[in-house]
Amino acid sequence: MKRVADFSHLLHERGINVRFLGMIALETKHNFIKEQVTREILARSIKVLLRDGLYFLQKQFTKDYEADAKKFIIYYLNEVFAVDDRETSVSIWQLLSELVLIKILFIYSN
Fold it and tell me: What is the predicted pLDDT for the residue at 110?
């Protein structure tokens, strides 16, 4: 398995829905699996926040939506992957942490 996408595909092949990623992350004892699952959860959480932001931009009816969308995505990814403790970067990671926690707790409690 070379990519996270391979991991998701492997789960689907075995009939495991990706909504159980939180449970897998909490229950597994294998570091490799925990790392792959955590990456997948983060990628999906980042995608949700990006999609929400793009939807918000689209509703604003800006004149140049495509340019605004590109700026938004670049800015957001720079904040996600920032190595310093900028306030905006910290707040984005707080949002991601809350989203991941909600997903894990929701899945684990059902």
Answer: 47
